[in-house]
Amino acid sequence: MRVHIYKDGARIGKAAASLFAAEIIKNPGCVLGMATGSTPLPTYESLVELYNQGVIDFSRVRTFNLDEYVGISRSHEQSYYRFMFDNLFSKINIKPENVKVPNPASPNLHDDCVSYDTSIDASGGIDLQILGIGNNGHIAFNEPGCVFSFGTHIVDLTESTIEANKRFFDSIDDVPRKAITMGIGSIMKAREIIMIATGRVKAEAVKAMINGKVDPQCPASVLQLHPAVTVFLDEEAASLL
Ligand code: GLP
User: Fold this and answer.
1) How many structural domains are present in the chain?
2) Is 113 inside any structural domain?
3) Which CA distances in Å does 231 have to 12, 194, 197?
4) What CATH number did the domain enclosing 166 receive?
5) For residue 191, is it within any domain?
6) Is residue 184 in contact with ligand 1, taking CB distance under 6 Å?
7) Which residue has the CA at smallest separation from atom 13 of ligand 1?
8) Cβ(45)–Cβ(160) under 8 Å?
9) Ligand 1 pocket residue status of 80, Cβ below 6 Å
10) b/e per residue, 204-216, with b = 16+ CB within 10 A?
11) 239 domain-assigned
């Protein structure tokens, strides 16, 4: 793991967007793995800026998102599908047919999980994946105690994740209890990974991810085993290292 510490989230956004931009310039038809949450927002803003400046072109880029809530529609303002269009896809020239987000409305969710992994493989695999981290060390929605070899699957969210994500909903009762998520097995296939974390609330999880043992109790710790991970932290997230 290469670990870089920056003053704030805006600088991390620029650094992470630079790696994306380099990938797109090197390989205009690349496959990008996208994440939601508040942490990648400055990265997406910087990508839109680079697109507006004519530095990068998304017309051949394909994307796969990590996860989606089960139980809310794609048009719900907290769906990850909507999040991606509101914050990135509607602001760049990516083709909607090149964008994939797990679809929880499908009548056969189990088959859909399998075909999500199949379509990632058929695309040639993810070249560059961005990840955030949950306060409990989760990545995507792989919660503590997950099985590292799993592909895309359905998960029950932990109380800690429901609690952390309630800030986006009117009340805690509105937070979905289940999600569809790429598994650690799917994520580890990405050729290169960017992990970003900001804020004191992430410091314990970041410490376990980098300095702890590789342990399903901290799903992000598996990244110690991946050969090409760049970690961008702000000073608060890095404060326990
Ligand atoms: C959610 C997402 C994760 C994300 C995490 C942290 O649970 N499934 O992919 O990394 O939240 O979100 P935030 O960046 O808002 O702290």
Assistant:
1) 1
2) yes
3) 10, 6, 8
4) 3.40.50.1360
5) yes
6) no
7) 37
8) no
9) no
10) bbbbbbbebeeeb
11) no
Whole-structure pTM over 0.90, yes or no? yes
Predicted local distance difference test score (pLDDT) of residue 57 = 98
| Residues 129-163 pLDDT 10s | 999 999 999 999 999 999 999 999 999 998 988 99
| Predicted confidence (pLDDT) per residue in 100-127, tens digit | 999 887 788 888 899 999 999 999 999 9
Of ligand 1's atoms, which has the minimum distance to the CA of residue 131?
Answer: 10
- pLDDT, residue 211, reads 97
Q: Is 170 a catalytic residue?
A: no
pLDDT of residue 11: 97
Which residue range is the domain that position 75 belongs to? 2-234
Gap from CA of 57 to ligand 1 centroid (Å):
27
Calpha distance 145→125 (Å, rounded)? 26
Residue whose CA lies nearest to ligand 1 atom number 1: 37
Output the CA 157–ligand 1 centroid distance in Å: 12
Does a structural domain hold residue 240? no
Q: What is the reported pLDDT for 144?
A: 96
In which residue ranges of the chain is pLDDT below 50? none
The DSSP 8-state label assigned to residue 67 in this structure reads E
Question: Distance, CA 132 to ligand 1 centroid (Å)?
Answer: 6
The sign of the torsion formed by the CA atoms of 32, 37, 39, 43 equals positive
